[in-house]
């Protein structure tokens, strides 16, 4: 089976008319979620630093840098927008792939569409089609390798996100099947390594993986347009160590996932959204904690001990603690921090993941009361369910407990348009609400937009 060719040909030939209404609608919801995350990240010091760097490049005014009130070249705009979409750790994701496609695919699509609109109007239907195809190209190879790709040392948001960004760009450029194949092959050569250890160490360079994938994907597509060729069997390979999926995974990839129900089931329909600003592996614990707090009133001073039970990869990825003045990345990937700040604040949003909160010694001391353990029964549910159980021992000895098996935002307990509109406003309280309403309304009617610049102007 030529898995790479099958996926490439499908993406090249996909038209808006092929896309079911519910799939097109989900793409628009992904855009809303992306916007919320970009706006919510702009206050983070790390994002401010990247934005300052991008602005200093004085690139051509080709594409909008969302929320920053300036434009830059398409690669620069895609880089900062993808970085901001990633940084707040509330981005969309695929449970079966461990990846976050929206941080790469959507900034690439809008940047390229805006640039192309200087010569011809690129409409909303084209952008929706590009995004849907891009998610297919990012998600399917990620699913073929999950979870061993991450356990082998790579983050699929950066790696497979480049394939998605390349396809989104290539769709908007109108590349034929042969050049689409070359775009994917090129992406496999220039994509970022995205070392998982950078995340596990809490290093803030982790936040650029979406932006780097978006920028590299655009490059891959334009190289194909310029005649640069890439291997047509980029995922499976034919010689030496094999293709991308083989050389970045320490076991045999499930290649059949690349083509499973291709054209019948769109991976974007499996995408979850996050109501909270932390790694998805923490969400079961966060939601369980919030539900316990809704049932009775208690705070840190009332708690003797907290035990959180979860699945194996959750223990590995988010079981660690934090220290005073730790990095926001470490806090976003720490169940002890997430549960502690949720108990203290009765919330888990942008204000809970800040340098100020990480400097709160009493909060950091409380995190030492939270222990994370593996649970065999919960582990058997993964990845079908990303469950966690929280058991809180109150002073006096009473134990209260709650288990959440399907956190909010999953397609089985979805966040709808109203939820995502509220998320945008919650994450961007400093922006004019009437302006946000116009942007939300325009996004939900994207298929009716004849010139994508009608939308990007509202993103500034």
UniProtKB/TrEMBL annotation:
MmgE/PrpD C-terminal domain location: 276-440
MmgE/PrpD N-terminal domain segment(s): 6-247
Pfam families: MmgE_PrpD_C (PF19305), MmgE_PrpD_N (PF03972)
SUPFAM superfamilies hit by this protein: 2-methylcitrate dehydratase PrpD
GO MF: lyase activity
UniProt xrefs under InterPro entries: MmgE/PrpD_sf, MmgE/PrpD_sf_1, MmgE/PrpD_sf_2, MmgE_PrpD, MmgE_PrpD_C, MmgE_PrpD_N
Domain of life: Bacteria
Entry similarity comment: Belongs to the PrpD family.
Protein name as it appears in the record: MmgE/PrpD family protein
Species of the source: Candidatus Zymogenus saltonus
